[in-house]
Amino acid sequence: MVEHTLHSISLFYPEIIIVVTLCVIIIADLVVKKKNHTAGWILMGGFGLAGITVLLQAGRNESVFYDMVAVDPFALFFKVLLLLSGIFIVFFSVNSDELKAYKSRIGEYYMLLAGMMLGMLLMVGSTNLLLMYLAFEVTSISSYVLVGFIKKSLRSSESSMKYIIYGAVSSGVMLYGISLLIGITGATDIYGINAALLAGVDQPLILNISILMIIVGLGFKITVVPFHFWAPDVYEGAPMTIAAILAVASKIAAFGMLIRFFSVSFINAEGISAAGVWQIFDALHWDLLLGAMAAMAMIVGNLTALMQDNIKRMLAYSSIAHAGYLLMGVVILTEQGISSILIYLFIYLFMNLGAFYVAMLFSNKVNTESIEAYKGLGHRAPLEGVAMTIFLVSLTGLPPTGGFIAKLYIFGAAISAGWIWLVAIAGITTVISLFYYIRVVRNMYFFEPETGAKRLHFTFGSKIILLLMLIPTLLLGVYFTPLLEFAQSSIKILGLN
Amino acid sequence: MEFQIFGLGILTWIVFIPIVGMIIVLLLPDRNSNAIRWTAAVVTGIQVVLAGTIFAIFDRSKVGINDAESFQFMEQFSWITVEAVPWVGRIEINYFLGLDGLSVLMVMLTSLIAFVGVISSWNIEKMVKGYFALYLLLITGMMGVFVALDFFLFFIFWEVMLLPMYFLIGLWGGPRREYAAIKFFLYTFVGGILMLLTMLALYFSVAYTDPATGQSVHTFNMLHMMNPANYVDGGILSGVDTTWRYVAWMALFINFAIKIPLFPFHTWLPDAHVEAPTPISVILAGVLLKLGTYGLLRINFPMFPDATIYFVYFMAALAMISIIYGAFCAMAQDDFKKLIAYSSISHMGIVVLGLAALNTQGMVGGVLQMFNHGIITAVLFLAVGVLYDRTHKRGLYDFGGIANQMPKYTGIAMIGMFAALGLPGLNGFVSELFSFLGAFEAFRWIAIISVTGIIITAAYILWTIQRVFLGKTPEQLLVLKDLTPREYLAFIPLIILIILLGVYPAPAIELMNTSLSHLVEFVNNGGR
């Protein structure tokens, strides 16, 4: 027993490092002068170190802490993505003017970020419903506070309030669903649930209800229609950095959890064909349910984004739409679908963070988030303008950017699995999305800057960070073999194959 | 054929040298406009030289189309290869370029028009650097489409054109440029998505057996997609004459019809043409529209011969409507550029009519018409540009008696207009004649009705000549000066080609005859 625990701990270093970092930040916050982003650099170091320990787990495929947490290639992929986005977010935070006004409390900010990261890392690894729920809540509670971090802004507090209420209700519903599921299967870990379902459950109705309730919680996190209402308000009120982490990292974590939970629990693992096509239990058509949600997310997200003037709201609706595209990959029920989700998420990380970053830089300088106020900015900030254009074009899915490859693989997986209607909707909504993404570009370039408006100057460091996101976005559009190989080797979910 | 320059094939050079030019342009300082212009001119000049080389050494007897062995200047490298996973098999995307009789003429056209476009862009003063950088990127996209033999590569090049074109119209265009630019973008993007979905469906329906390893490999290679033997069992597009194949054909057709543009997908064109600056109109009409018909020939016809035969009358009918409707619309315009835009719709209709005939005359006529129309409309748009530069007007009624004031200009413009009208002795006549001959053999009544479009064309062209060039010169136009040497430089190569190909079209026909005859046979035999 001690041996197992010790072995488990040795595979639990990333999470432990984050916890230690969290504690160090708290102490440092008390000791060190609060002028600089000391805490931020500590956190960056923690994320980096955790990242290294994650990479050292490559090739591991085992269950630790008595089936509580899985350390498998699938979790590894997600942890890499999460830590990468965490590092970017710290970079953003150091450059953010919004946060400068709160220097004295910045320690708390980074501490909460560390807490959120801990929750997210656990979300993608946990294989036990109780731990899943705990991880989910750790992530949520940290993010509730972070959203309201700008105390003096009414909007920020309001959005935090909305987020809490919405989040609390959703996770309550999810918890109820979890309890129902545990009740009828008698197991708390997903392998046990799968085994119980394989043996046959005589309560299909309750089973379906419980799945529906769990989807409410997860749907809230990945902001998929009809659980998306919080997103635009929260993104708008939250600091830009937090809006970015909600749109990217927390969505990535929720997808990791969703895929693991559904594929391990509700797939007839014995029925996986050589072609990687899964078989679901007869009574549960959760693929159709998720398919309908994906379609709605694509339609509602894209159509509503057309009408937004605030860049954060626009990106919020765009992230809802992207959740729809991503969900398509789950619906397909093939390993190909999962690998295309992984590819999509990897590219999405760079392009969406990039768009948020440029929006943040612009709002630092011109102090507005209105897309109308972007008029002429392309002329005043050449590099940032071009970068924003590339990020938005990539979000649209035009070659030769990474976004195209992401869409290519998701669409391809859906076509090969025969979900033609879903792909058709995805195609149509992609065209619609062009319109609102390109509107930003239009405003940046098709208008002359007002007379007297000066060129905007950004620090050298901020340009480097920009390039760190821009280069992968472009590079992945023309050469993506390594990403494909990484994604294909990462679909090994513990307990599934 | 081994023909390499510094270890890279000639096609790679001709496609990517504009990118090199673009990087140089971006590195040059903003203020140094002339260096930027010269870079663009030199780069496109090199392309013309390369195209000339290709013309000189191109083997006229090789077939191409679906036979990998007989493509010329071929370059094939593995680009993306991901080793076998049980559930997808090997993934393969190739960097695969090649020329056959179908594409060689288009490469000539693109390089020539690109060069002419640079010359006529010389007096662009606004954001010179951005303009030429985007312009060169656009050229790479167009050239790439014509030489790509891998569907994925084809698609990338196809979509790469969108953004530069959007900016070129939207930033350097006329008063309603924003509207025109987004309209162009949306229309072509819709087409692009349709093509993307069809491309993916094809990809999953086609697999060839790798002779080396015996693996079954999904591929984007167009030549493999043309071979019915490569369709996998149970693939969505496998089989012959299935509904999905018709749907896929239609999706591709709509994409290409938007580019051509055929009625009823044409409405973006007049807006785009009117608002675009002169050189971009030249590129748009001269090359971009041909991408549509080229796509039909390269993709729709050989990959879906069954559906092509099924939809022949549908294509011919749309072509007929385009010819007549475009001509009538052209007659109704009082804006010079809009007139040419509608005449383009009408003339591209003739191309489609010729192709739909599915016989050698029609096909040769159609492809030749693609080339000729590119040259002729380039002349016409340049001619409008000359007047617009001097007067900032484009209305047909704003002019009159130009012939008295600018005799040399009038001479050149009239050659272009008569060529558009189809006067024997000029190039337009030859290709229109062939197209109609082919069409007459295939579907008599459609051809007969379509020919009336020629009469309407004659009417609006002669009327335009009368309104603009003849009559008494209004007083405010008495200050106009005749052509400058730079303008001559843009016009003269085109005019020479108009006359040369009108009198002696054989060199152009020889280039493509072998390939097109094979294509006709290939399609009519259902891809065998």
Q: Looking across the biggest beta sheet of chain B, what order are the strands in? A: 3-4-6-5
Pair with the biggest interface: A-B, 39 and 37 residues
Helix content class of chain B: 55-70%
Overall average residue pLDDT of chain B: 88
Q: What class do helices, strands and sheet pairing of chain B give?
A: alpha+beta
**Intertermini distance of chain A:** 26 Å
How do the SSEs of chain B run, as a string of H and E?
EEHHEEHHHHHEEHHHHHHHHHHHHHH
Radius of gyration computed on alpha carbons of chain B: 22 Å
What is the CA–CA distance across the termini of chain B? Answer: 26 Å
Number of DSSP E strands of chain A: 2
What is the radius of gyration of chain A? 22 Å
In the predicted model, the low-confidence regions of chain B spanning at least 5 consecutive residues are none
For the largest beta-sheet of chain B, the strand count, sense and barrel status come to: 4 strands, mixed
Total number of helices of chain B: 21
Report the average pLDDT across residues of chain A. 88
Low-confidence stretches of chain A: none
**Helix-strand makeup class of chain A:** mainly alpha
For the biggest sheet of chain A, the summary is:
2 strands, antiparallel
> How many beta-strand segments of chain B?
6
Describe this structure in words.
The complex is a heterodimer of chains A (497) and B (528). Chain A is mainly α. Chain A has a domain at 285-497. Chain A has helices at 2-10, 13-31, 38-56, 73-95, 106-125, 129-147, 154-185, 190-199, 204-221, 230-237, 240-247, 249-265, 286-305, 311-331, 335-366, 377-380, 382-396, 402-416, 420-445, 460-478, 481-489, and strands at residues 62-64, 69-71. In chain A, strands 1-2 form a two-stranded antiparallel sheet. In chain A, helix 15 (335-366) runs antiparallel to helix 17. The model of chain A has no long low-confidence stretch (mean pLDDT 88). Chain B has 528 residues and is an alpha+beta fold. Chain B is built from 21 helices and six strands. In chain B, strand 1 and strand 2 (8-9) form a beta hairpin. Chain B is globular. In chain B, 60% of the residues are buried. Classes of the chains: A mainly alpha (497), B alpha+beta (528).
